[in-house]
Structure formats: structure tokens, C-alpha cells
Specification:
Layout lengths: L1 E6 L2 E5 L10 E5 L5 E4 L7 H6 L4 E5 L9 H8 L3 E4 L13 E4 L8 E9 L2 E8 L4 E4 L3 E2 L12 E2 L18 E4 L9 H10 L5 H14 L1
Parallel strand pairs: 4-5, 5-6, 6-7, 10-13
Antiparallel strand pairs: 1-2, 2-3, 3-4, 8-9, 9-10, 11-12
Length: 216
């Protein structure tokens, strides 16, 4: 496990830092002091990392494909897994108590916002006005396959031609993503630049991806 994205109100980790997907998970501290674990991939030493920030209040799944180890972490801490109420097909596959979320993640101070809702992709963004933290599990990322050369934050390759412009409604201080390290300063500007250049830089990203697949 490699620690990433540490700040006063939370921390992130990559359970398998050498994998290409760079799956990132996070724990954020709520307004009431509890710790919320987001899209977790389990790892040795994780409970010690979480304990540094307080008692676990709940686990949340923010993307339909990010069930990951949410149930295992929730059972270990005797808490529920929280799933957006409009997200289909996730709750029945979780071997843990499940709570459905409408707009607020419990009493955490974080709002749950529908970002994508299609038959193939359901994603929620999490935003805490109390600390300026935005969590986007898949639509944005910093892993290599998200980025055209010269980019530090990119829109997911499958969304490049129709980027999630609703993200402009947020003005976060920091951005945490589900693949790669987060953007801990000037996040709003980084998001705006990623959205503005998404379509324009799409051909470049696709060409670089094909070249990487063919020539390594």
C-alpha cells in the first residue's frame, strides 16, 4: 500500500501502486468527526491508516463498478455501505448492510451528486462544502491512460467527446479521483482546463493510447 493525498481532512491510498489502473481509495473526515471510506481497495495496514483519522462511520460506493472491497471493509468496522438510491445493481452484490443515499452522505457534511446515469455507467460525485473537497471516482483521473501528453488531469477516455460539464458547478480546493493521485491545490482551475480541452485533445490521447498498445 502506498499513501497518497494526505491533507488535514483525509487521506488516500493505492493498495497496488504498480498496477496500470492506479486504483485509488480515500477516507474523508466528516463535519461530525467520523471517517467515511470511499470506494476502498483493501490492503495490509489500512485499519491503522484509518484509525489515525478517527472511527469509521461508513463506507460509500460512488461508481457502480467500484464495489471493490467495500463490503469487507464495512463488515470489519461494523458499519453500512452507502449507495446512491438511483444506482442500480450494486446493493444486491454487497455482502454487508446497505443504506441508500438520496442527497447527503449521512451526517458527514458531504453531498452526493448524480454525475452520470446511463445503462452502462452510473457515477456520483461527492462534495464537502465544509472543507472544499470534491471526489470524482471515474470521470476525471490522473492515471497515465487518462492523460494526453502535457496534461496533469484528464477526462476519462470514454467521456472525452462528451465531458461531464456539470462538474463546473463546484469550486473545490482539492480534487480526489479514483485512478491516480489527486489535485490538492487549485483544483477548480485544473478541472476547468481538463473539461475545456477534453474534446480538442481527444485525438491526441487516442493516438497515444494506440501507439502504447502497439509498441509498448
Amino acid at each position: 500500500m502506498r499513501e497518497i493525498d494526505r491533507y488535514d481532512g483525509g487521506v488516500g491510498w493505492m493498495a497496488h501502486p504498480d498496477e496500470r489502473m492506479q486504483r485509488a481509495s480515500h477516507a474523508v473526515v466528516s463535519e461530525s468527526g467520523g471517517v467515511w471510506v470511499l470506494d476502498p481497495v483493501d490492503a495490509d495496514g489500512l485499519d491503522d491508516l484509518l484509525a489515525e483519522h478517527g472511527e469509521v462511520a461508513g463506507v460509500a460506493v460512488l461508481l457502480d463498478r467500484h464495489k471493490r472491497d467495500a463490503a469487507a471493509v464495512a463488515r470489519r468496522h461494523d458499519v453500512s455501505v452507502y449507495v446512491p438510491e438511483w444506482m442500480d445493481g450494486v446493493a444486491p452484490k454487497l455482502d454487508a448492510p446497505v443504506e441508500r443515499v438520496h442527497a447527503d452522505l449521512g451526517d458527514s457534511g458531504f453531498g452526493v451528486h448524480e454525475l452520470i446515469d446511463t445503462p452502462l455507467w452510473q457515477e456520483a460525485a461527492l462534495y464537502g462544502e465544509h472543507d472544499g473537497t470534491l471526489v470524482v471516482p471515474e470521470a476525471l483521473g490522473t492515471a497515465e491512460y487518462f492523460l494526453a501528453s502535457g496534461e496533469s488531469l484528464g477526462v476519462h477516455p470514454a467521456l472525452r467527446l462528451k465531458p461531464p460539464r456539470s462538474l463546473r458547478r463546484f469550486a473545490p480546493e482539492r480534487l480526489l479521483v479514483g485512478h491516480g493521485e489527486g489535485v490538492l491545490t487549485d483544483a477548480a482551475s485544473a478541472i476547468g482546463e481538463a473539461l475545456d480541452g477534453s474534446r480538442r485533445r481527444a485525438p491526441k490521447l487516442y493516438a497515444e493510447t494506440v501507439r502504447s498498445m502497439l509498441f509498448g
